């Protein structure tokens, strides 16, 4: 208990010493919104699962996983590039480059919409899709169309985070979206709309588009007050930096969704639906880490540019120790009461308890490794992140292919949890080698 108290005190002291009480307040605010987003996500999944049942919810869950995969490629690695670049450009007063980056980002979103929607329509109407089955062809088309608002929200959220507006970024990339999904699904239940996975996806799309419009209006009003000189473009350099981040983000999404997609294909949609709820519940473990990283990302970029390694070392280690407190408590809750929590969702979902326990254990190890990917990406070593996650993804796909037929839900959890630990250890090793900083909870923060 004394060690936990000491870690908590060290973490708070580190955060306050870096930016005073303002950083602590921003971290708490972003954490609160991250909790709200996760709560809304889970509440929306809970209502959808009870409304649709395991089979139809499985269709909906698989469609959301495919949407995440497509949106990852659609984002082209730009979210993390925007966060890093906006922070650095504002620190250096490079407003021309900042304006050029904003213009290229808008042009890219427009191009994505112009290309993706017709291609998806041709593929659907022409019957060129080997998957999904004919019944779900229009489900695929709707999923592909929703990539555009998802990408737009992610880019706008990353831009706001780069401006050290983590709370606005959390609202943009999650809270508004899932609040809308929750309200629309609740409305469908009240109105007695027949349970159908395709209808649930359409409601999700309405919430997405509404959130994108609201965030765009907010960002436009904010940007009008800032300098906008003649834009300067470094498009090749931006692409070279963004592509490794795209592959890293893509591989991470594969790690997060491949097990669900493979369960739906190799087992059945009911197993996919149960496992989807278990994985989303396990992600609560990484909630404090994600909230802290949303605040720390621009600060890490600026500290690395100024070569202040001592303050950076103190920040990441003490923050990691602080974050282990809620992560450890969360592990105990899910390990001993996970079956009861899953049972609240509906009949049959408690079968995912063992898979949930395996996944929360892997997330605990992830938190212990520290903010490894953030450190590499914000300091210009995004290729190291890409390769570490690549090896983890290859292992993940292979293990899922072997273990799902043997052990079902638990096999998918073993594959995903084991590879999550592996690639985080590889990332920690890369941080120590490249930055001469130890990001784990075992390092000396001084």
Question: Main attributes?
Answer:
single chain; 446 residues; mainly alpha; 15 helices; disordered N terminus
Explain what the structure shows.
It contains 15 helices and no strands. The protein is globular. The chain is an all-alpha fold and 446 residues long. It has one domain. The N terminus is likely disordered.
Annotate the secondary structure layout:
Layout: H1 2-75, H2 78-91, H3 95-125, H4 137-145, H5 147-162, H6 166-191, H7 197-223, H8 235-266, H9 269-282, H10 287-305, H11 309-345, H12 353-369, H13 372-378, H14 382-407, H15 409-435
Helix pairs in contact: 1-4, 1-5, 1-6, 1-7, 1-8, 1-9, 1-10, 1-11, 2-3, 2-5, 2-10, 3-4, 3-5, 4-7, 5-6, 5-7, 6-7, 8-9, 8-14, 8-15, 9-12, 10-11, 11-12, 12-15, 13-14, 13-15, 14-15
Give me a quick take on this structure:
By secondary structure, the chain is mostly helical. It has one domain (2-435).
Main sheet characteristics = none
Coarse shape: globular
**Proportion of beta-strand residues:** under 5%
**Roughly how many Å is the radius of gyration?**
21 Å
The pLDDT mean sits at 81
Question: Spans with pLDDT under 50 lasting ≥5 residues?
Answer: 1-9, 11-21
Number of strands: 0
Helical proportion?
Answer: over 70%
Q: What order do the helices and strands follow? A: HHHHHHHHHHHHHHH
Given the helix and strand composition, which structural class is it?
mainly alpha
Q: Whole-Å distance between the termini? A: 22 Å
Count the helices. How many?
15
Domains (count): 1
